[in-house]
Amino acid sequence: MRRVPLPVLHLERPLVECTDCGRCCTYVGIGINPPTSPRHATDILWYLYHQGVYVYVDAEGEWSVHFETRCRNLGVDLRCGVYLDRPHICRSFDDRTCEVNAPARHTLTFREPAEFLAWLRERKPRLHARIEKGFVPKALRPERKEPATVARAPRRRAVARTARV
Q1: Under DSSP, is residue 135 helix (H, G, I), strand (E, B) or coil?
Q2: Which single residue of 12, 50, 86, 159 has CA 20 to 30 Å from 133?
Q3: 120, containing H or E segment
Q4: Quick one: the chain helix, strand, coil %, rounded to 5?
């Protein structure tokens, strides 16, 4: 029997075990609608008004909102307290493909409302103009310089003249 040598994959760095990290148990990420309408754009603003929340777009163009919040079942030893009965979403996590061992690329990340509004103003000016009118607090609106006006002399009111007889 002839032996066939198999290639050995060398990793750039060793895999980080779940019990050394626990990162995936410290946030919730949810897919959201992209800002294609005033409603969706103002939803994103609402997310960004909250601390510990950011919005990102991944390499596939999918928009998500990310809430920094630790799972109540994650122990101080970074082990799951309900491992045998954990939800399906937790069962789909794999330390070989997690964000620490195989980092995902985010093409855009917004941590503050002003960042999102600046992007919207540049990339979707019509949508930005629609939401700026009624959905953006004045504190987040860019200062606009008023155009210089030419001073005009006050208009004189026309006085009715009557003819004397």
Answers
A1: helix
A2: 50
A3: helix 113-123
A4: 30, 15, 55
